[in-house]
Amino acid sequence: MKASVSLALMELGRRFGEVEAVRRVSFRAAHGEMIAIIGPSGAGKSTLMRLINRLVEPTEGRILAGDRDVTALTGRTLCAWRAECAMVFQQFNLSPRLNALTNVLMGSLQRHRSWRTLTGLFPHEERLRAMTLLDEFGLAHKAFVRAERLSGGQQQRVALARALMQRPSIMLADEPTASLDPRNAAQVMAALRTINRDRGLTVICNLHNVGHAREYCDRIIGLRQGAIVFDGPPAALTDAAARDLYGAEQDEADITQATPELQTA
Ligand SMILES: Nc1ncnc2c1ncn2[C@@H]1O[C@H](COP(=O)(O)OP(=O)(O)O)[C@@H](O)[C@H]1O
Ligand SMILES: [Mg+2]
After folding, report:
1. DSSP SS3 for 3
2. Average pLDDT over the chain, rounded to whole?
3. Sign of the dihedral through C-alpha 175, 32, 187, 104
4. What is the pLDDT of residues 21-46, one digit of tens each?
5. What domains are defined for the chain?
6. Residue nearest atom 25 of ligand 1, based on CA coordinates
7. Phi, psi of 32 (to 5 degrees)
8. How buried is 146 (Cβ within 10 angstroms: 0-12 exposed, 13-18 middle, 19+ buried)?
9. pLDDT tens-digit series, residues 188-224
C-alpha cells in the first residue's frame, strides 16, 4: 500500500456555464484524515470529488497532493494520479454476474496487461490479496457468490475491496450509503472508518446523512451553493449550524440522529 497522501485545495473553482458548481474552495486534508463533505443536493459535492481525481477540470485554482501539482498533471502522470484516487459511488458498479472475488480482482486490472484479464489468469499473489480484503470486510464466505446475489451493503463492501486493490493513497466516496438501509449503511461507514484507521488512508466522503458524518468522520466540511460554509470537528457542528447549512432543503438530510437514513431519491 502506498503511503497516504495529504491534499491541499487552493481557491478551487468550477463553472458550468452560469452555474458556479464549486466556488473558491480551499482546505487541506492531512495524511490519514477522514473528512465528510455534507450539503444539500446541488451544493457541489460530487463536482468537488471529481475535481480531486481530475474527472472534471477546474476553471480556477489548484490542487496539491504532497508536493505534486495535481492540476498540472497530464498523460501518464495523470493516469497514475487517477489510479491513486480510489473512488466508490452510490451505485456499486459491480459486474453482477461475476463473483465477489473476481469483482475485487478487477480493481487490479489497471496494473496488468489485458491478456491476463481475458484468460482469467490473475497472479496468485493478487488472488491472495483480493481474498484477504474480502475477509477483512467479513465477506470471505461470499467470495464465490455472484455479485447480484449479495445485499446492497455487501456489494458496497466488495466495491471498497475492489477500490483497495489499486493500492490507492486516497479514498473518495460519493454518497456510498445513499441507497442502503440503515444497518447496511452503518456497516459500510464502519468499513470506511476501518480502512482509514488501519491503513492510515486519507478518506473524503460525500454524505447526505449528517449523523454518519458526525459519528464516523474526524472533520466535517459543509458546502452550500459551491462554497464552504462550515469546516470543523463534528462537535462544532451544532444542530442549528446543520439546519442552517441545509436551509430550505433540510428535509433532505437527517440532521440530528446518528443512524436512520432518509432516502432522498
Ligand atoms: N456536467 C455538468 N454540466 C452542467 N452542470 C453540472 C454538471 N455537473 C454538475 N453540474 C451542476 O453543478 C451543481 C453542483 O452539482 P453536484 O456537484 O452534482 O452537487 P451535489 O453532488 O452536491 O449534489 C449543480 O447545479 C449541477 O446541476
Ligand atoms: Mg452528488
Report:
1. coil
2. 90
3. positive
4. 999 999 999 999 999 999 999 999 99
5. 7-252 (3.40.50.300)
6. 42
7. 75, 10
8. middle
9. 999 999 999 999 999 999 998 999 999 999 999 999 9
Dist CA 155 CA 158 (whole Å): 5
pLDDT at residue 79 is higher than 50: yes
C-alpha cell at position 255: 440532521
In angstroms, the Cα distances linking 78 to 7, 171, 197, 256 are: 16, 16, 27, 40
Q: What is the structure's pLDDT at 109?
A: 72
Query: In the block, which residue shows the cell 466516496?
Result: 173
Mutate to test the pocket of ligand 1, among 12, 16, 174, 208 (most ligand atoms within 8 A of CB): 16
Q: Whose CA is nearest to atom 16 of ligand 1?
A: 44
Choice from 18, 20, 25, 47 to test ligand 1 binding pocket (greatest atom count within 8 A of CB)? 47
What's the grid cell of residue 208?
Answer: 447526505
